[in-house]
Amino acid sequence: MTTLPPDLLRLRTLRTFLALLLAELDEAIALAEQREREEQQGRERRPPPPEWLLEQGLNRDSPPVQVHVGGCWNAGKRRRGITRDEALRALIEGVKACGVCRPDTELGYLDG
To answer: Both 59 and 103 in a single domain?
Structure first.
């Protein structure tokens, strides 16, 4: 059983405090729900990851370093998504295939 103060003044003060606390709680819940909706929309609208990656050289004038299967953990930070045809063309032109994800095998390119 709760122990509430017996006098009206303290009871009303307590009620006012609880009403303010409840309003603050409702606002926090609304903000959390909004944040969850926005995160869900972001996940739904995110473009799919590229199927193939081309790892770039150290500067823009450097030739590409490696071709990777999309999502390869070994792909460096300087990479961009490419199409299947671009990945095949890069391998044909002599760009090295990643030794971890083996894009040449995935593409069926056996001449490299």
So the answer is: yes
